[in-house]
## 1
Amino acid sequence: MTDQGPTGCVVIGGGPAGMVLGLLLARAGVRVTVLEKHGDFLRDFRGDTVHPSTLTLLDELGLGEEFAKVPQRRVDRLRVQLEDRILPVGDLRHLPGDHQHIALVPQWDFLDLLAAAGRREPGFELRMNTEVTGLIRENGKVAGVRYRDRETGTSGELRAGLTVACDGRNSITRAAAGLRTREFGAPIDVWWFRLPRHAQDPSGGIGRFTTGHAAVLIDRGEYFQTAYLIRKGSDAQVRAEGVQAFRDRITGLIPWLADRVDAIESLDEVKLLDVRLNRLRRWHTDGLLCIGDAAHAMSPVGGVGINLAVQDAVATARLLATPLRRGRVRPADLARVQRRRWLPTALLQGLQRFVHKRLLSRALSGQIRTGAGVPKPIALLQRFPVLQRIPAYVVGIGPRPEHAPAFARRPTTRV
Ligand SMILES: Cc1cc2nc3c(=O)[nH]c(=O)nc-3n(C[C@H](O)[C@H](O)[C@H](O)COP(=O)(O)OP(=O)(O)OC[C@H]3O[C@@H](n4cnc5c(N)ncnc54)[C@H](O)[C@@H]3O)c2cc1C
């Protein structure tokens, strides 16, 4: 089956990058189709942080009030727990702009909001349950995609002037296009599971490090979405120890969880998330651009990946709206997107690599004995609290924040 009618841009993947790009291009008057392989956004792992840079963007898009109505927790300080001490490492309360906090929102709510805003634009189409299986090439150029409808099992082709891969860190598109990655490696994988949360428990995000162990609890109201860090590749070995040994690890790390670890009935409830850190050398080929994790897979460190993917999408819409409206996107136009977004990506990945090497891999292998003292950078932040504004800015706003182009801006809509 070949779809009727031209699409200016086909976007592969309805994650943060794909949904923001689809919405902005539709507002630019470009006909855009977003293809998402799942039937909904309700997957347990989606990352939960919406940072001040993205909150500002939502205001500019006229979606700020709608977003504020989504149930959420707010975090205005970043803290790390070393042994029994909770130490502040970032203070967002002095950030410039209207938002001095990170919103913790289940990502499906954020994506649903973007999808609803997209559907209000005439040129926007979102097809769920549609998995891209390959690229169409014509005269050496990518001319669209092949897909499979996962509900009906039928296959089809969709042609477009530009294809944008937003299909995340397991992108099949970039491999199909022959684009090569630079791998930085990651010392950790993540075990991801839920634990009940009680009313008197701490709120917001809580990180806990101790010799050989680390975990992060994300407050989702009724429950904690919990990330337990394991050494890269040690999943089978830790799993073989069994569920009781795992419960003991959790209570050893965070003793106040002892009254509810039995809620983990089996290790089948514990999902392995494979952490990767890499970057494409070239983010594009004629007719195809990769952005978000498809161009640069991010580690969970700092929770910056969603916001970086959103910023990529904003820059892409701003730089490519005019060429798309003219009906001809040249390789030089695609190269401009990479030039614009390379530096913030490389800086944030550089910081993630530093934390991987200096903190996480040493802590998990027991080389840092947290009881022996506070690591130097954290001690410095305690001695001069004003310095806590720097990590807050890097995480909350980041290098080279992008703003909505004029064509995408709307006054706030009251819903
Ligand atoms: C363990 C872990 C925890 C993290 N926690 C956070 C966090 O709290 N905050 C944060 O900012 N970042 C976090 N990150 C990083 C963050 O998840 C990513 O950087 C971010 O999701 C990238 O957004 P994206 O839109 O580029 O890709 P994704 O969010 O991966 O979205 C890709 C989309 O494409 C779809 N797709 C894939 N293949 C196809 C196909 N063939 N056809 C059609 N659709 C397809 C997928 O279903 C998905 O919806 C975390 C990462 C890890 C590994």
Note: The mean pLDDT is 91.
## 2
Amino acid sequence: MATINFGGVLEEVVTREEFPMEKAREVLKNETIAIIGYGVQGPGQALNLKDNGFNVIIGQRKNSKTWDKAVADGWVPGETLFEIEEAAQKGTIIQYLLSDAGQITLWPTLKPFLTKGKALYFSHGFGITYKEQTNIIPPADVDVILVAPKGSGTSLRRLFLAGQGLNSSFAIFQDATGKARDRVIALGIGVGSGYLFETDFKKEVFSDLTGERGSLMGAIQGIFAAQYQTLRNNGHSPSEAFNETVEELTQSLMPLVAENGMDWMYANCSTTAQRGALDWWKKFKEATQPVFDELYASVAAGKEAERSISSNSQADYRDKLNKELEELRNSEMWQAGAAVRKLRPGK
Ligand SMILES: NC(=O)c1ccc[n+]([C@@H]2O[C@H](COP(=O)([O-])OP(=O)(O)OC[C@H]3O[C@@H](n4cnc5c(N)ncnc54)[C@H](OP(=O)(O)O)[C@@H]3O)[C@@H](O)[C@H]2O)c1
């Protein structure tokens, strides 16, 4: 572990320097890693592990487009690609990467394959934390571990191919074998993480549900929509409103924040812009703080999990989500966005 100062708070983290890939390979040399589910995280983690030299097989239900995707990615039926039950039987480490709703449905099928000494791996603390609602209660004689990449499986793969990595959290819920810590860190390095920071299952799920409902996805859309509407209500054109709300942010400003922080982005804008941003950010913080506190309380009370489980267990949940996404896509702001994107040079 390396001790790093995060804004005045010291934290222990794992980097590829203290735990190099060769060490990860040594720890997992006798393991068969069965990736169950080939949705978004499945391919990213499986392909990175395979390319890093680990022994990986896939478990995916047949008669599904996802099976065909796995074949197209080079997994060979009967050799490295199996039905879920067969892969779970062969695997010594079971990476449970079905959708969170799928994990609940399939749990009674998977559980018998979790025999003594195996490891059950998650990329989200959801199933274990909300066990009253999911009924996911692993046997006592298996390790239960987590590596949660902080981003999409697609980005995990893209960054790996570019020689970079997404940061991941890791956690140990149950150490039955005494090997859980080495196993989880080795897997975290193997899937292509940048650095690894330790958490527990509950903190992982509370922060993740808050983040995606909050600044990563929900809040950002809300703030975009509010500012766009204010500009449109005051007679600004869609092109002007979209450029001032979204395009400038994604094309110009966020890459600067990613590179060197908020102050550096501010410093690269006009002094007029800096004066205004420094005056107004606290007002936005005050206005949204109660909403974030309400959101966290809802997550902690299990209400967000309940909503997710009840909506995802409906047979037509995908259609309903697609309909809502379509409404978003068809809103004036995002239609204006499509037009702006088409006008980007080089398109
Ligand atoms: N999305 C991300 O990038 C991301 C990021 C960090 C952590 N995570 C976590 O990683 C885990 C996997 O998430 P994901 O987004 O990769 O999931 P996903 O894309 O929604 O997973 C779909 C996979 O689950 C299978 N599946 C769903 N329901 C099933 C059922 N009832 N029986 C059998 N198979 C079923 C699908 O097979 P079919 O195609 O045949 O239906 C497919 O293989 C979750 O715990 C999630 O919270 C995800």
Note: The chain has 17 helices and ten strands.
## 3
Amino acid sequence: MGINSLRKEFRRFKDFNYYDNLVSNKFYLLPFNFRRLNSKRELIISMLGDFLIVPEGTVEKLVLKDIKGIDENLYYDLLSNHIVHDSKDIKSLELLSNRYRAKKSNSFKFAQLHIFVITLRCDHTCQYCQVSRVSENKGKFDFSKNNLYKGIDLMLSSPEDDLTMEFQGGEALLAFDRIKEAIAYTKSKAELLGKRINYVICTNLAPISREILEYCKEEKILISCSLDGHENLHNENRKRPGRNSYDLVSQGLNLSFEILGRENVSALMTTTSLSLEHPIKIIDEYRQFGFKSVFLRPISPYGFATKNKNSTYQTAEFIKFFSDGLDYIIDLNKNGEYFKETYTSILLKKILTAYTENYVDLMSPSGLVNSVMLYDYDGKVFLSDEARMLAQMNDYTFQIGTVNDSWENLLSSPVIEKISNAGVNDYLAGCSTCAYNIYCGADPVHHHATQKDMYGFRPDSSFCMRNMSVLDIIFNKIDTDNEVLEIFKSWVNNE
Ligand code: SF4
């Protein structure tokens, strides 16, 4: 009997004996979802994120309580992975509820990442830039000192004690003096308030200098730069006069490694249509600089990025790029080189551990409010970086106020209430029955931007297609290649 015919069977009530037999069998079902991995294998995932890959037909036997049809070892696997339960003992269920609470722990938090768009000025005209940028000499596009201090006061009055203050642009280092003022002001107040602040500067590294890096070293500031891949690709994506963006990032990286140490410097790539043919060259570029990971990151389909043909491609094309890249990275690991893919690692932490990740796209309840706040150069406050990209196209849906507001005012914005409904995938149509919902997220900004509906329609959602495909790739690899699980565990354990 297939699952479809099984569903039809259940539409009619059976006689009493049928239900009596089901109840008198020795196990009880715990909440789980399932997915057919291929014609022979099924994937069962508990509400806690424990998973089992089982022979086809197992789910049907479970639902029918056909204990005789289930192999004894499999039965114990089902028990230990919290897919079934062998007693009505409420205490063990309490244990499960604690684990579920740990999985959802980030929903009890407030934003820890506070992004300050310190200037819109930029020295690049990147193909895919999602925000408007203005030429270098327009000082009016910097954060004013007055607004900056108000934004910092707001950040410091938020409930979390461990905060990350990230400076973005435009090109953040074009407003380096303003960054120094921001850090001096934050430091003067943070200690009194018992707040611990990590600082990050996101930069294309073109304006970097020994003097700036010495300051970063002194203030323990991390550097996050953009590196899209090999020279041609990087220069094509990241245009600037003289077509020397790659040379500048290359020199800047080496100087940053020398002064700050490798562990304090990271790089991010963005996949454009020009990248799609080159997953291996891109990964090799990261290896050449000594990085131990790469984040194969799709472009966000927002803002000005949507206006450039090199910035748009089909999700299926991205998945092929991602899959080829992941294959290559796994081969590197099999040959003894530790190197990981960051998006996979975020998902693996959710799959292989009792914990979760604070990655805003993959959170339910949504990471908006719980994970990140953004203060734009003109004092507007947004719920995420993507939210301000939308504002660049005159869509202010996710602006909750300005730095002049109190948290009470900001958090009573009507959009917050909408997000609390649209940002929980446990009960969104399509997601609520999806095997992957404990690992995935809701992303109301993406669905608002791409489908004009924060809830989103999953059959047409590029967010859904990407996550479902990536998770299918991960589980198929775990199922078919014995070495892969150990490699994946090493990525999670060596964070
Ligand atoms: S977005 Fe798609 S993959 Fe993610 S939980 Fe929803 S249905 Fe599943």
Note: The CA atoms of residues 118 and 143 lie 5 Å apart.
## 4
Amino acid sequence: MTEHFRALVIDDRDGKPVADFRELTLADLPDHDVLVEVMFSTLNYKDGLAISGKSRIARRLPMVAGVDLSGIVVESRNPDWRTGDKVVVNGWGMSETEWGGYTRFQRLKSEWLTRLPDAFTLEESMAIGTAGYTAALAIDALEAWGKIRTDAREILVTGAAGGVGSVAITLLAERGYTVTASTGRPEAHDYLSSLGATGFIDRSELAAKGAALQRERWAGAIDSVGSTTLANVLAQTIQSGAVAACGLAGGADLPATVMPHILRGVALIGINSVTVPHAERDRAWAILAESLDRKQLASMTTVEPLSRLPQLAEDIVAGKIRGRVVIDVTK
Ligand SMILES: NC(=O)c1ccc[n+]([C@@H]2O[C@H](COP(=O)([O-])OP(=O)(O)OC[C@H]3O[C@@H](n4cnc5c(N)ncnc54)[C@H](OP(=O)(O)O)[C@@H]3O)[C@@H](O)[C@H]2O)c1
């Protein structure tokens, strides 16, 4: 086993969290019960915030960054996990309170591990990553709401060309919904059409403050943007529709009224991917296995080496990344 290995570590420098590559040994890792050889990680918006220092994600330092990982069990003190098992870990506080995936080896609590679904390779599981699995959690939540009307009505996906948005579009289209994409990148329309979007609105149309109730249009929505965009989406959602709120790429505020909820019965459903129990995770992975076309997944994914993370972090926070990025931690 490799004696020394490289990891991306966030540490305090003059009172600020700064990310840098550092050589670690197995003795540096936390004393959790399963040692995993990490093969792939990924880049999520939250990773971008953590590495670029644009937001304080790590709540203790030093912190090995990386919200997700996939790899192979090397040692286990838990009989449920054996050497050679292929595993995926999404969230569970990695990069916040627990050391994460931007490293060749990591020790993890056995209860955080998900067995790699048969439908996917280790690399594909990170092409999905927290962003894709959050898109599946959002679809599960909308379908569990049980009142989404799909007869000639559209589902809106905001932040469409991003990671959550791209996976949400392809899953929704595959499940028979009519999908409209809200994007600030007109040049991404062909890409979004190839994923299954059939309508487009420019994200600026949702960015300006609007009336408390607007023309009813969306049967449901998956929102990665928050703020005024989410308020407008709620105001445009039809009777008994639902909006799954995942993100804050446009802001963490919500300048909305109760009118869509009390006059149209619209539901606002919050999605938290980090600490959801295994039953919900399993349902999300089942949706992915059932409805995610692997060719579509490949078409929205690029693979990058660990060494490119600092630049990629700046790019995702600036909204320049399209689709999903897998991080090959062996390079
Ligand atoms: N709740 C959870 O557990 C959970 C899990 C995963 C992600 N998230 C959150 O979900 C959001 C999306 O994550 P991601 O990984 O998909 O990020 P991403 O790949 O960067 O996608 C975000 C997209 O939002 C749009 N956007 C960016 N800045 C914007 C702005 N100022 N105003 C309006 N739209 C803007 C862009 O889409 P266009 O270029 O198409 O306009 C961008 O591609 C993030 O806020 C992330 O923190 C939450």
Note: The first strand starts at residue 5 and ends at 13.
